[in-house]
Specification:
Blueprint: H1 25-55, H2 57-60, H3 67-96, H4 101-119, H5 125-128, H6 131-161, H7 167-171, H8 173-192, H9 197-210, H10 212-223, H11 230-238, H12 241-245, H13 248-255, H14 257-287, H15 295-321, H16 323-336, H17 338-345, H18 350-378, H19 385-402, H20 404-414, H21 420-438
Helix pairs in contact: 1-3, 1-4, 1-6, 1-8, 1-10, 1-14, 3-4, 3-6, 3-19, 3-20, 4-6, 4-10, 6-18, 6-19, 8-9, 8-15, 8-18, 13-19, 14-18, 14-19, 14-20, 14-21, 15-16, 15-18, 16-18, 16-21, 17-18, 20-21
Length: 454
């Protein structure tokens, strides 16, 4: 892209510039709450589904197979949601960079909420035969389609609204919402599992999915009062007619490929580890180590509480020491952690099992994304920032967290219950992220009004 095209949006010397003004603190707080609650809904949807896949869906939707194959089938349906995420990212990205971040945040909110509620209405395999898992996969697809643009919208809006030097702190609040969603999902499963088994299998699991309506309503009440980011308002005001006709998606593939590839590879390993710790580990404990199923939601809840803190801490540290060194430190820990993690899981001690899950939440589930929240938007120019973050994160999520639980289940089954192939797989995936981080630039002090990429 030529230098003439890479001008600043809202030049500091212009009367319309916001460079010399402090951000609207009320809107920063609203954006933080809107992103936090919306991401809580997204993660709540995914966690209740992932937990259901580990402890109940193999029984009611895939009943005529062995437990191991039932788990693989459940996680196969789980992976469909991740396959839909980049499609949702592609669809909503053109609107997020043209109509605004807020428009997408409201649209995806209702799509995810309706899809999750609908899962609670589905017939079981005993009631509808093969149509039951087909409808389950369809609802899971809609969940993922909405989620494909949800977090990107939240982090871009907050990164563009918060003051430089505090982007990491505020943007990381998006992923505090993710941890909160995990905690709420775990609590709901803990309560439902108190029902007799017959009640759990008949209507108890449905109540879990119906409960998403409350989070959806809360998120909408907050988001309807949200303002657009100042950078997006300036971009819409200053963009000429020809620029408005251009697709942000095509623009990011033409001019933002470096940022796109960086986000993809920096996220693919981190995302895989995140969902391995949040979903596969629970299924591994129940299916292969014969741990009581009620233990999993409890330890997920504890891990999520720690994760609420770790996301903000990671964001604050990235403001102080830089995005790249903090992200590299976290991913290097995760690179060497898999073998010790499985040794502790197989120790027979529930204490060490809990330690593994909690550390997974602290570093993989929230430590990485706490830095990503500000880092990824800073890698892109303002013209197609939403598209770049959404597509980079969601395509990597397909090859990361989307298929990771499925691959891990298949590897353990292939190895007759042995865990070492999973540990090697986790290390390979994280090595990709570590290398990508080493080759990426520092962006902490970047001016987000610039059109060109970092």
């Amino acid at each position: 892209m030529s230098q003439n095209n890479d001008v600043q949006v809202g030049d500091p010397t212009s009367a319309n510039s916001t460079a010399d003004h402090q951000p609207d603190q009320a809107n920063v707080r609203r954006a933080a709450w809107a992103g936090l609650v919306g991401t809580a809904l997204e993660q709540y949807d995914f966690v209740i589904y992932g937990t259901a896949s580990a402890i109940i869906f193999n029984t009611i939707f895939f009943p005529n197979v062995s437990p191991a194959i039932g788990i693989i089938s459940s996680f196969g349906a789980y992976a469909v949601g991740f396959g839909a995420r980049p499609l949702g990212g592609l669809f909503f990205s053109r609107f997020g960079d043209r109509l605004g971040r807020k428009w997408v945040l409201v649209s995806t909110l209702f799509l995810m909420g309706i899809a999750t509620f609908a899962i609670g209405l589905l017939p079981t395999y005993a009631q509808a035969g093969i149509w039951a898992p087909i409808l389950l996969v369809a609802c899971r697809f809609l969940q993922g389609f909405g989620a494909g643009a949800e977090q990107a919208g939240g982090v871009v809006l907050l990164a563009e609204t918060a003051a430089k030097g505090r982007r990491g702190r505020f943007a990381s609040l998006i992923f505090v919402g993710a941890a909160a969603g995990t905690a709420i999902g775990a609590v709901v499963w803990i309560l439902v599992q108190m029902l007799p088994e017959e009640a759990l299998l008949s209507y108890g699991w449905r109540l879990v999915f119906f409960s998403s309506i409350f989070v959806t309503i809360a998120a909408y009440i907050i988001r309807r009062r949200l303002k657009e980011s100042p950078i997006m308002e300036e971009l819409q005001k200053d963009a000429d007619a020809e620029q408005r006709k251009q697709s942000p998606v095509s623009e990011v593939f033409k001019h933002g490929r470096h940022g796109l590839f960086r986000v993809f590879f920096m996220n693919v390993g981190a995302n895989a580890h995140s969902y391995i710790f949040q979903t596969f580990m629970g299924a591994y404990l129940i299916t292969y180590l014969s741990v009581d199923a009620t233990f999993v939601p409890k330890v997920l809840f504890i891990g999520a509480l720690f994760a609420c803190v770790s996301a903000v801490v990671a964001g604050i540290l990235s403001d102080k020491f830089g995005r790249r060194p903090v992200y590299l430190s976290i991913t290097l820990f995760l690179l060497v952690f898999p073998f010790p993690a499985f040794m502790m899981l197989n120790s027979g001690s529930t204490f060490w099992m809990a330690v593994v899950i909690i550390l997974g939440f602290i570093f993989a589930a929230q430590g990485t994304v706490g830095v990503q929240a500000a880092y990824f938007p800073e890698l892109f120019g303002s013209r197609y920032r939403y598209a770049g973050v959404a597509l980079g994160r969601e395509f990597s999520a397909v090859f990361g967290g989307g298929i990771a639980p499925l691959i891990c289940s298949a590897l353990v089954t292939w190895a007759s219950g042995s865990w070492w192939p999973v540990a090697i797989y986790m290390m390979v995936m994280m090595a990709i992220t570590v290398i990508a981080t080493i080759k990426s630039p520092e962006t902490r002090d970047r001016d987000l009004r610039l059109k060109e990429d970092a």
